[in-house]
Design a protein that fits this description.
The structure holds two protein chains of two kinds. Chain A is of the alpha+beta class. Chain A is built from five helices and five strands; from the N terminus they run ββαβββαααα. Chain A has a five-stranded mixed β-sheet with strand order 2-1-5-3-4, covered by helices on one side. Chain B starts with a strand and ends with a helix. Classes of the chains: A alpha+beta, B alpha+beta.
Chain lengths: ~160, ~290
């Protein structure tokens, strides 16, 4: 059965007809060609598919597209403003927190959700917020440093 | 691609009607269990009923008598971030925070954790020591069961055909100084099932010497999470003693019926029950005295 849904993605309004079992990840990657969001495990465990839904981090691979109807989605593509990178993106690059880059979009969005809610996250807060995002390359140390640095920048501390 | 009907009722009555009408129907709240099962082809519903647009199911209401009612569509994240929940029922917040990850908790619901009825569900031991009640709505009307009676086996509950969880009620806790704790032993710090879950609620006398009641619930070590009545008896009306702690921990171990699975052997789980109950009681007493 097709359901018509309306969703705003990175500020742009879209209207689509989706099958009940189509996931938000599929809509983003295949219908909207926003391939920055990745599929890692496909079962909500690795966080590579993390996007923001009404500002909250969710796993888009286990979210049905119909559940995003009427809501606002932010993907990694929605962070930069033209050539101007978001402080989180800059911090990740500067800290050396990106190796293969596959986990990175999800990591950055989880971090954004955290900082938007808590502008002064401590290390434990960062670890808890990112616990649903797995990285096989970096060992997480640089990622946590990057999030900490980005939070400082975003609140004007450095 | 399978052809599944998607329904979005705006009232509980409509949801119940839609649920009752068909045989292969599933209820959708957060979908963190349902969509995984759907993708893994463990289920093949013909109809999915999205209950998140029903206003009363989205209510989180703290009552004047100290109780709280948690609607079926309330997410774990919303629950754990509610400041009144944090101060009145911290053990449920603590247990809910061990579920999955932030991403999961933003969508997952307390009702869903119950309805999915996993023997290792983290919120159930906490709900057991809080003596929660589950209110359900069905074709015959609404009814209520104690959480201890709700789950009947792995993946099985007392929900009849056409019945859905409406809300979970946490009754007001008895007065008096108290401390509660949920300990989850898992391989990872997040995104993992419990190998053993221990929920403890200590209610003491005002003099902080005598324990009025120590409620103990175990998860992941039996087909259904359960309260260990025998172990609770040891502490009723008693002062703290290491002997009592060892006795209670031993009785908890005796009561557990764990299986061996990919996460742990039954023997290891039995040892974990004993040491975690001991550790938990020591910790909850120490917090209570401070």
């Amino acid at each position: 059965m097709l359901t018509n849904i309306k969703l705003t993605v990175n500020g742009q309004k879209h209207e689509l007809a989706v099958q009940t079992d189509t996931t938000l990840l599929q809509v983003l990657r295949y219908d909207l060609a926003l391939t920055g969001t990745k599929e890692g495990c496909g079962e909500g465990e690795c966080g590579a598919c993390t996007v923001l839904l009404d500002g909250q981090a969710i796993d888009s691979c286990i979210t049905l597209a119909v559940q995003a109807d009427g809501k606002s989605v932010t993907t990694i593509e929605g962070l930069a403003e033209g050539e101007h990178l978001h402080p989180l993106q800059e911090a990740f690059i500067k800290a050396g927190a990106v190796q293969c880059g596959f986990c990175t979009p999800g990591m950055i969005l989880s971090a954004k959700a955290l900082i938007d809610k808590n502008p002064t996250p401590g290390e434990e807060d960062i670890r808890e917020a990112l616990a649903g995002n797995l990285c096989r390359c970096t060992g997480y140390v640089k990622i946590i440093e990057a999030v900490d640095e980005a939070a400082r920048k975003m609140r004007g501390d450095s | 691609m399978t052809d599944i009907e998607y329904c979005r009722p705006h009232s509980l009555a409509e949801a119940v009607r839609l649920f009752r009408e068909s045989d292969k129907v599933k209820i959708l709240a957060g979908g963190t269990d349902l969509v995984v099962q759907l993708k893994g082809k463990k289920i093949a519903p013909q109809r999915i009923i999205d209950i998140t647009y029903i206003p009363e199911l989205n209510e989180l209401e703290h009552q004047k008598d100290g109780s709280v009612s948690i609607g079926a569509a309330v997410s774990l994240a919303r629950l754990t971030e509610d400041s009144a929940m944090q101060s009145r029922f911290p053990i449920l917040c603590q247990a809910a925070r061990t579920v999955g990850s932030n991403q999961i908790r933003q969508r997952a619901t307390l009702a869903g954790n119950l309805a999915n009825a996993s023997p290792s569900a983290d919120t159930i031991p906490a709900l057991l020591v809080l003596e929660a009640k589950i209110r359900m709505a069905g074709p015959e009307g609404s009814r209520e069961v104690a959480v201890a009676e709700f789950m009947t086996g792995p993946g099985k509950t007392v929900l009849q055909k056409g019945e859905i969880i409406k809300e979970i009620i946490l009754p007001a806790l008895p007065g008096g100084p108290q401390k509660a704790l949920y300990l989850k032993f898992a391989r990872r710090k997040a995104v993992d099932l419990a190998m053993v879950g221990v929920a403890l609620l200590l209610i003491g006398e005002p003099d902080r010497q005598i324990c009025r009641e120590l409620r103990i619930a175990l998860g992941a070590v039996a087909a259904v999470p359960f309260r260990v009545g025998e172990a609770e008896k040891v502490f009723r009306g008693q002062a703290f003693s290491s002997a009592a702690v060892s006795e209670a921990a031993g009785l908890a171990k005796k009561a557990a019926r764990p299986i061996s699975d990919i996460r742990a052997s039954a023997d290891y789980r039995l040892d974990l029950v004993e040491s975690l109950v001991k550790k938990g009681i020591d910790e909850v007493w120490a917090q209570y005295l401070s």
